[in-house]
Write a structure and sequence with these properties.
This protein is of the alpha/beta class and 328 residues long. It has 10 helices and 15 strands. Strands 3, 4, 5, 6, 7, 14 and 15 form a 7-stranded mixed β-sheet that branches. A 6-stranded parallel β-sheet has the order 10-9-8-11-12-13, with helices on both faces. Strands 1-2 form a two-stranded antiparallel ribbon. The protein is globular. The relative contact order is 0.17.
Length: 328
């Protein structure tokens, strides 16, 4: 047994604190697989955990970080052996179970998936929960029977992690993608990912009518609140919107009008406890359908020791695309 480097969130009388320090192997939580973490990533939820802005962390001390890829060091799980390359997203890691911003993790093998064929560990974390959530949203729209022939698709929060991957996935599948963003100067970036139109988020972020002009057949919304209400109000008859985020808020100030007058469907996306068959299908589709050159264009990299400063940045909307955390 020994120690390893980790970001640790703790809580005392003065409130939450964050430190980059040595962590003892003996203090890792129960699990049947120990992983040498090689890469992690930065998601909106990670920003909440790092800053304490929202009570994401439910146990102290906590190593934050909800995603990792790495190499199995020890295993009592029948599906994994030392040397296997694995990926983890969700399952409360970084919230209730010690997480990914560390050189080592011990988790339940049932939470892992093998590193998908065709992806490197770094590419898997360039995708991360954000990209995986975008694919789950795309799968929900597919299951609803929507196709590009029925009209455009809108993506809100398009410059962020979920939005960037959603734009790329939909565009590659032939959709006319309308990318909604409030970031000045991002039009070139989004069109490089495949967006056909750019929509100022101000058009969606203020209260609107219960029903508006029908503008799109499908949507992937990472924002929630008034933005989602307006997206629903402007969705075409028999269209659908996949809701997967809450950057603007958890509320939904809408009416039943889009649902009962146009037959619009609201599809909820839960990426945390997705059952294994659906989880593996999503990763397999990402490996096949996401253009890796496009993924590279939306990805930046930081070292583990730099993560602490990024929490406020992602919450303020200043992180573009995806961020890979290089660990080992």
């Amino acid at each position: 047994m020994g120690t390893f480097k980790a970001w640790v969130v703790d809580k005392g009388e003065a409130g939450q604190s964050l430190a980059f320090r040595d962590f003892d192997d003996a203090d890792l939580m129960e699990g049947d697989v120990t992983v040498r973490v090689t890469h992690s990533t930065l998601n909106y939820k990670d920003g909440l955990a790092l800053t304490g802005t929202s009570p994401v962390v439910r146990r102290f001390p906590m190593i934050p970080g909800i995603d990792f890829s790495g190499i199995v060091e020890a295993s009592d799980h029948p599906d994994y052996k030392p040397g296997d390359a694995v990926v983890l997203t969700g399952w409360g890691v970084g919230e209730t179970h010690l997480g990914a911003y560390a050189e080592r993790a011990r988790v339940k093998g049932d939470w892992l998936v093998p590193l998908p064929e065709g992806l490197t560990a770094e590419q898997a974390m360039a995708i991360g929960t954000a990209g995986y959530t975008a694919m789950l949203s795309r799968m929900a729209l597919d299951a609803h029977g929507l196709t590009p022939a029925q009209g455009p698709a809108i993506v809100t929060g398009a410059s962020g992690g979920v939005g960037s991957v959603a734009v790329a996935l939909l565009a590659r599948a032939g959709w006319h993608v309308i990318a909604s963003t409030g970031r000045d100067g991002e039009a070139g970036y989004l069109k490089g990912l495949g967006a056909a139109e750019i929509l100022d988020r101000a058009e969606l972020s203020k209260p609107g009518k219960p029903l508006g002009k029908e503008r799109w057949a499908a949507g992937i919304d990472a924002v929630g609140s008034t933005t989602l209400a307006n997206v629903l109000a402007q969705t075409r008859s028999d269209g659908a919107v996949a809701a997967c985020g809450l950057a603007q808020g958890m509320d939904l100030p809408t009416s039943v009008a889009p649902f009962i007058l146009r037959g619009v469907s609201l599809l909820g996306i839960n990426s945390v406890t997705t059952p294994q068959p659906k989880r593996r299908e999503a990763w397999a589709r990402l490996a096949r359908e996401l253009d890796l050159d496009t993924l590279a264009r939306m990805t930046s990299r930081v070292r583990l020791e730099e993560v602490g400063r990024l929490g406020p940045e992602i919450l303020a909307g200043r992180i573009r695309g995806r961020t890979v955390v290089e660990i080992g």
